Amino acid sequence: MSARRFSLDTNVLVYFYDARDLAKQAAAQQLVAEAAARDCMLGLQAVGEFFSVVTRKGILTHADGGREALNYLMTFPSFAASLEAHRVAAREASAGRLSYWDAVLLRSADEAGCTVILSEDKRDGLRLGGITVRNPFGRTGLSAAASAALAP
């Protein structure tokens, strides 16, 4: 395990294919391509959410969405949610600190040894256990946090 192990949230995986914001699409494509050569893991939850979002929003057909979900699973090592991740999620959600599914993903990434998750839809700097949320998108491309995650 690397001290720099990180994960990508669903929104990064979706932006890779979403041409409605070309700047974010380009940044996501760069991030995913470079992450494949780094110590990056994907949550099975994020891959499932990717399929759901891209097919529901018409970004990809079901056939293409399934093929690309499989591509993510073949490209990146993955982690699943544990019983403990769900316990933490129930506590965090009932206390109003996080949504249930955000807490499951963060706790699962933490259990997999990730120290950072790159996500646009959670508060930058948010921490849960040993993992920190960092926004991967800057004004003109990748953020400094994303660049740091990709550093060798």
What is the string of helix and strand elements? Answer: EHHEHHEHHEEEH
Mind telling me the CATH class?
A: Alpha Beta
Q: How many structural units, i.e. domains?
A: 1
N- to C-terminal distance:
14 Å
CATH superfamily descriptor: 5'-nuclease
* Percentage of residues in strands: 5-15%
Radius of gyration: 15 Å
| SS class | alpha/beta
- How would you state the average pLDDT, rounded? 93
What general form does the structure show? globular
How many E strands?
Answer: 6
- Fraction of residues in H or I helices: 40-55%
Could you characterize the architecture of this molecule?
This protein has 152 residues and is α/β, with parallel strands linked by helices. It has one domain: 5'-nuclease (Rossmann fold). It is 51% helix and 12% strand. It has seven helices and six strands. It has helices at 10-15, 22-35, 44-56, 62-75, 83-94, 100-111, 144-150, and strands spanning 6-8, 40-43, 78-79, 116-118, 127-128, 131-134. Strands 3-2-1-4-6-5 form a six-stranded mixed sheet. Helix 5 (83-94) packs across helix 6 (100-111). The longest helix has 14 residues, at 22-35. The chain is globular and about 35 Å long. It starts with 5 loop residues before the first strand and ends with a helix.
